C-alpha cells in the first residue's frame, strides 16, 4: 500500500491472514465457563439440546441450503437440534448488539469482524481458544482466527471480497465500452448512466449511520484500491493524509456530479443491493455473497464483477475490501460443548467446502476447496481479480470499529450536504479517532 510498489507493508500482514490461506487452497483447484446468565438454548426431552443460531447467512444462500447443512449436522449429532434465527445483515446486527450488551446472545452467533472487539470486551463472547484446547481441536486447519488480547473470539467461516458490480446492459446503453478501471473512467461512466434518465443513477452510496459499514465498503474501498492506508505504520489514525483526502474529495465529486442514487444519508447496504437488482443503479461495490440474491430476484439481470477503479496514475497492486461470515459462541450459553460441535462441523473440510461454494466465497478451512463447477462463474472472475491484488480491510480488529465508521460517516455527511469542507471533516474525524485508537 506504499505508492506503486507491489510489496504489502507490515501493517497489512495482520489482515492478509483472513483470506490468503483460504485462497491458497482455492488456487490448488484453478468478517471457559458460563457466566450464570440464563441460557438461550434449551434442554429437550431425552437429553436433546436445542441451540439457537442467529445469522444473516441463510437469506443470502439458495433457498433451504443452509437448513440442509443443519440437517446434516443434526444427523451426525442426534442429541443436538439447531434452531436458525435468520434475518438480513442490518437487523441481525442490531439484534446481536442488544444481546451482547445484555449478555443474552443466542447460543451461536454469526459475527462480522468489526463487532468482535466490542463484544469480547463486553464479556458477551466465550473464549474459543479454551474450547478448542478442551476439544483437542486442530487449529492448523483454520485459515485465520480473530483474537482480542490473544484469545480467539471469532473464526471466519467464509470470506468474501467486495469487487465492483457492473450492469453490462446499462453500460452498453450508455455507450460505455467496458467496466471503468480508474477514477476518471468511473466518473465518466456514472455520468453517462445517469444521463439515461428515469430514476437511474450511476452509483449508490449507503451512509445510514445506524449501520455505518458503507464507510468501510463504499468509501475506504477507493483508498485501498489505490494502495492507500488510513493508518500510520504503528496503527494510529492518519486521516489527514493526502491519500485519504483524495478519496473523500473523489466521493464528493461523484456527489457533486449528481451520479449517486438519492437517499444516501439513510441508505443501508441491502437498499443498495435492491437498487442494483431493480436496475436503478448501474454500478456498486458489493460482496460476492449477494450474487445469489441478485440472480434470484432478477434472473435476467446481465451483470459482471470488475476490480475497483484506482487513481488514474496508480500501477501497483490493488487492495480489495473483504468481509467474513464469522462464527462465535455466547459466553452466557450453558451448552458450550454442543455449540462448539456446530462450529467444528461448519469448519470441517466437507461442510466448509460446500458452504463456501453455495455462498460464492472463499473457505475458512485452509484444506477446503470450493467446487468451481458448482459455483457461479462470477466467483471465478472475482478469484482472478483477487489474485491480482490483496485483501484490505483496516477496520478488522480495531477497537470500537463501528463507532469509528459512524464518526467518519457523520462528518462525511456534512461534507456531502455542503455544511463543511473536506479538511474540516477529516481533522474532526482524526481527533475523534485518536481518542479511541
Describe the structure.
- Strand 1 (42-43) and strand 2 form a beta hairpin.
- The chain is α/β, with parallel strands linked by helices and 437 residues long.
- It contains 17 helices and 14 strands.
- Helix 9 (214-225) crosses helix 10 (242-256) and helix 16 (401-416) runs antiparallel to helix 17 (422-434).
- The model is unreliable at 1-39 (pLDDT under 50).
- The protein has two domains: 10-161 and 323-391, D-Maltodextrin-Binding Protein, domain 2; 164-320 and 399-434, D-Maltodextrin-Binding Protein, domain 2, CATH 3.40.190.10.
- The radius of gyration is 21 Å and the shape is globular.
Brief digest:
Helices cover 41% and strands 15% of the residues.
CATH homologous superfamily of the largest domain? Periplasmic binding protein-like II
- Structural class comes to alpha/beta
Helix fraction bin: 40-55%
Count the beta strands.
Answer: 14
Please give the structural blueprint.
Layout: H1 13-16, H2 20-27, E1 42-43, E2 49-55, H3 65-76, E3 80-86, H4 89-102, E4 108-111, H5 113-121, H6 128-134, E5 146-148, E6 151-161, E7 164-167, H7 168-173, H8 183-194, E8 201-203, H9 214-225, H10 242-256, H11 269-277, E9 281-285, H12 291-297, E10 303-306, E11 319-320, E12 322-329, H13 336-346, H14 349-359, E13 362-363, H15 377-387, E14 390-391, H16 401-416, H17 422-434
Parallel strand pairs: 2-3, 2-4, 8-9, 11-14
Antiparallel strand pairs: 1-2, 4-12, 5-6, 6-12, 6-13, 7-9, 7-10
Helix pairs in contact: 9-10, 16-17
Amino acid at each position: 500500500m506504499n505508492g506503486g510498489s507491489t510489496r504489502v507493508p507490515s501493517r497489512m500482514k495482520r489482515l492478509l491472514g483472513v483470506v490468503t490461506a483460504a485462497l491458497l487452497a482455492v488456487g490448488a483447484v484453478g468478517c471457559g465457563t458460563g457466566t450464570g446468565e440464563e441460557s438461550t438454548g434449551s434442554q429437550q426431552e431425552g437429553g436433546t439440546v436445542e441451540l439457537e443460531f442467529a445469522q444473516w447467512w441463510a437469506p443470502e444462500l439458495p433457498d433451504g441450503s443452509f437448513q440442509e447443512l443443519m440437517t446434516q449436522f443434526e444427523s451426525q449429532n442426534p442429541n443436538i437440534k439447531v434452531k436458525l434465527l435468520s434475518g438480513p445483515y442490518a437487523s441481525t446486527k442490531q439484534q446481536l448488539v442488544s444481546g451482547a450488551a445484555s449478555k443474552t446472545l443466542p447460543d451461536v452467533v454469526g459475527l462480522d469482524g468489526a463487532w468482535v472487539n466490542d463484544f469480547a470486551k463486553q464479556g458477551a463472547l466465550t473464549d474459543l481458544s479454551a474450547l478448542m484446547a478442551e476439544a483437542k481441536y486442530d487449529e492448523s486447519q483454520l485459515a485465520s482466527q480473530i483474537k482480542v488480547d490473544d484469545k480467539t473470539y471469532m473464526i471466519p467461516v467464509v470470506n468474501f471480497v467486495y469487487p465492483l458490480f457492473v450492469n453490462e446492459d446499462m453500460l452498453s446503453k450508455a455507450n460505455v465500452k467496458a467496466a471503468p478501471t480508474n477514477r476518471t473512467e468511473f466518473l465518466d461512466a456514472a455520468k453517462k448512466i445517469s444521463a439515461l434518465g428515469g430514476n437511474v443513477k450511476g452509483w449508490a452510496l449507503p451512509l445510514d449511520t445506524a449501520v455505518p459499514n458503507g464507510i468501510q465498503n463504499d468509501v475506504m474501498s477507493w483508498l485501498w484500491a489505490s494502495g492507500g492506508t488510513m493508518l500510520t505504520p504503528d496503527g494510529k489514525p492518519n486521516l489527514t493524509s493526502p491519500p485519504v483526502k483524495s478519496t473523500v474529495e473523489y466521493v464528493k465529486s461523484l456527489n457533486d456530479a449528481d451520479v449517486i442514487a438519492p437517499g444516501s444519508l439513510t441508505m443501508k447496504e441491502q437498499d443498495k443491493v435492491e437498487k442494483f437488482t431493480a436496475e436503478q443503479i448501474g454500478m456498486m461495490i458489493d460482496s460476492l455473497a449477494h450474487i445469489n440474491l441478485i440472480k434470484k430476484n432478477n434472473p435476467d439481470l446481465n451483470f459482471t464483477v470488475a476490480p475497483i477503479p484506482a487513481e488514474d496514475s496508480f500501477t501497483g497492486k490493488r487492495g480489495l475490501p473483504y468481509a467474513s461470515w464469522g462464527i462465535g459462541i455466547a459466553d452466557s450459553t450453558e451448552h458450550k460443548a454442543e455449540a462448539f460441535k456446530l462450529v467444528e462441523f461448519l469448519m470441517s473440510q466437507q461442510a466448509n467446502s460446500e458452504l463456501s461454494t453455495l455462498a460464492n466465497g472463499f473457505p475458512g478451512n485452509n484444506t477446503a476447496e470450493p467446487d468451481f463447477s458448482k459455483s457461479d462463474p462470477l466467483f471465478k472472475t472475482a478469484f482472478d481479480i483477487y489474485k491480482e491484488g490483496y485483501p484490505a480491510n483496516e477496520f478488522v480488529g480495531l477497537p470500537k470499529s463501528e463507532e469509528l465508521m459512524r464518526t467518519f460517516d457523520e462528518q462525511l455527511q456534512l461534507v456531502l450536504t455542503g455544511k463543511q469542507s473536506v479538511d474540516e471533516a477529516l481533522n474532526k474525524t482524526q481527533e475523534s479517532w485518536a481518542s479511541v485508537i
